Amino acid sequence: MTTLYKITSLAEWASAVAEGVFRGAPVDLADGFVHFSTASQVVETAARHFAGRDDLLLVSLDASAFGDRLRWEPSRGGALFPHLYDVFDPAAARAVVDLPLGPDGRHLFPELAP
What we know:
three-stranded antiparallel beta sheet
């Protein structure tokens, strides 16, 4: 089983839970898909795209739940990143945890499942 990770704001996630559907962050909506990362990608994703933000959550999901709506496409340096071409039910999340900043200003991650 492959675990996918989505970094999202507290406000975006709260809205998704209230609506019963996660449509994506503004960047996802602009690109036409929900950006996910794998365990080996998510720390760099946080550093590149969410540096200094202290209002974040780390959502983990099972990749197999998305079937053919999930595509693995080249991105940073040719690495394959998971992109979901659909919305998803926030209830599908396996875990949702805070993603706080450490004293060095980098995000503190929990143990990540592969």
